[in-house]
Design goal:
three-stranded antiparallel sheet, Urease-associated protein, DUF1272
Length: 102
């Protein structure tokens, strides 16, 4: 089950389950679209992979037992352990390599 983290791991912006600004990497690291574009340069500072828009979990139960009510978003905030300088150095080193080739 995809973990819907409640915040951007960089700027700590709230990213509720219905947010269209949430981006995730393959390890579910979660950042806002602004940080992905302007700070991270589409490079996850944790794994080096790229980002995709985070899917929206339906609020309304259209199938029995399948909805945000039954599989709620996480309440645990996560923040990156890397400094802005470390993120910039890491991102600059791999940003020109397509995510599928990293």
């Amino acid at each position: 089950m995809l973990e819907l983290r409640p915040n951007c791991e960089s700027c700590d912006k709230d990213l509720p389950p219905e947010s269209t600004e949430a981006c995730i990497c393959t390890y579910e690291c979660t950042f806002c679209s602004n940080c992905v574009s302007n700070l991270l340069m589409n490079v996850c500072p944790n794994c080096g992979g790229g980002f995709s828009p985070r899917p929206i979990r339906p609020k309304k139960e259209r199938r029995v037992g399948v909805s945000l009510l039954h599989q709620p978003a996480s309440m645990s905030r996560v923040n990156t352990k890397y400094t802005a300088a470390e993120i910039t150095d890491f991102s600059n080193a791999v940003k020109d390599i397509k995510p599928e080739n990293r």
